[in-house]
Amino acid sequence: MTIKPVFDAHEQGSAGNLGDLPEWNLDDLYTGENAPELKRDLDWLEEACAAFAVDYEGKLADLDAEGLLDCIRRDERISGIAGRIMSFAGLRYHQKSTDASRTKFLSDCQEKITTYTTPLVFFSLELNRLEEDHLKTLYAQNADLARYAPVLRRIRAMQPYQLSDELEKFLHDLGVVGDAWERLFDETIAGLTFHVDGEELGIEGTLNLLTEQDREPREAAARELARVFGENIRTFARVHNTATKEKEVIDRWRGMPTPQTGRHLSNDVEPEVVEALRNAVVNAYPKLSHRYYELKRKWLGLERMQVWDRNAPLPIETKKTIDWPTARGMVMEAYAGFDPRMGDLATPFFDKGWIDAGVKPGKAPGAFAHPTVTDVHPYVMLNYLGKPRDVMTLAHELGHGVHQVLAADQGELLSSTPLTLAETASVFGEMLTFRRMLDGATNDTERKVLLAGKVEDMINTVVRQIAFYDFECKLHDARRGGELTPEDIGALWMSVQGESLGPAFDFMDGYEHFWAYIPHFVHSPFYVYAYAFGDGLVNALYAVYEENPEGFQDKYFDMLRAGGSKHHSELLAPFGLDATDPAFWDKGLSMISSFIDELEAMED
């Protein structure tokens, strides 16, 4: 069991007087790495796992409905304690991933929990050997057991790819080795230093410069990123080669037909649905990113766009820093305006130390919301530097947090939402905040700046992430043919960049290394299509909200409360939506296109 934060690739703004930025208070998990409660839980976990194996190994087929329910509830309790320990260790680590003592503590916790839980590997293997009719009979006998049917269905989806009991235990133990490569990636990224205009910056501060109004610091930052990535590219290539090869070996032994199969199974989504999404987005490149960046090229007064112009502010945009209290007010107003319950759910994040907002040396880059366990609460990490996009990042991660709070009532095994649906509340929170800001625009210039910013965020969420997905597909396919040099990986990266961004762009030397800093590729292969899935889903949902707002909020809250207890088809049915219909994705993409239409109309 490992902590899997949700990283979001929002580039962020420049520092100013931001106010008092909140920091995490992790005491609700444990008061410190030497807390007696932590030792108590580790000791309990070791005993509970051993006792579980003694009581149930080789015996699942003989359990009646009540016996299987007790077994599942004991497993759920074990998952909760293990998740609490790893959440604490992982969150401390992400606060300062360059701290050797925090790294050691995380590694030690991971190794102990892996060792303790190895005896439990039999559980899913024996579940998968049960006959479906037998399970249905047990469900019919006990409604509380039947409630866990979605959990067992997802476990049993792995049945065709299950190995022998001995090999499954071996792979379970070997997991800590793969985690070590992830930590090498994290520590390398967090330890990079960049020198721009005489200032030493970390990766977050350097990426922030790509959104500066002046072109000179944007170019300087892009070239410095390319230089530093280039100096470290052999390390990043080694991490990617090893992680990709490890996945290929495991997939081959399991007999998985494609590198993406495991992700689709964990996301509880059909491959053809993902393929329909991917094709819809790629086919829409000309009317989305290509069209928008041609507009932006004209706004910037350039003959050709360079990569450091992609997220540049518009020339008409007023340079401003949004302090933390203002950002909080903007997001909370949008949330409460949609439904007061949304505001009530979001308030504790600000008031109780559930957000860590500031940029600090050694802190992990990006942003995420981690649900911890259902009897505690989520924690949100930001790297807040005060630009409008940072406000959207806050709205996004707070949406994750609200979703996780609502789903917690499902319990440890049913609360976890597949990645494809996990982005729903976050992207919806962004949309609410954007619409509130758009309604407050006082003139065409302000409206144009807001629309352009939203279009860029949507392109980054949909077009850019599907390009990332295509890159990963190519990377994993190519790695099956042998070791990849940094140049090989760079060529794969460049093969999707021009196609997705369009003919307005030129690409500087060194941009072929920019795959190196994307954490999803290492932590969660093929994660990225979930962003595009979530954006398309939310665009369709918001269209339903605008067309028929009556009763929408209650249906929306019911969807979030469901957590992972329902398939996406069941969750979308009350809204009259169906993700298996290719036209569904076109409906979502049409919202982005309509925003670009409005921007083009402003040029006339």
Can you describe what's shown?
- A hairpin with a 2-residue loop joins strand 1 (about 195) and strand 2.
- This protein has about 600 residues and is mainly alpha-helical.
- The chain has helices at about 35-55, 65-95, 100-115, 120-125, 130-140, 145, 150-155, 165-190, 205-210, 215-230, 235-255, 260-265, 270-285, 290-300, 325-340, 340-350, 390-405, 420, 425-440, 445-460, 465-480, 485-500, 520-525, 530-545, 550-560, 570, 580-600; strands at about 195, 200, 355, 370, 380.
- The chain contains 27 helices and five strands.
- The chain has a three-stranded mixed sheet, sandwiched between helices. A two-stranded antiparallel ribbon has the order 1-2.
- Helix 1 runs antiparallel to helix 2 (about 65-95), helix 8 (about 165-190) runs antiparallel to helix 11 (about 235-255) and helix 17 (about 390-405) crosses helix 19 (about 425-440).
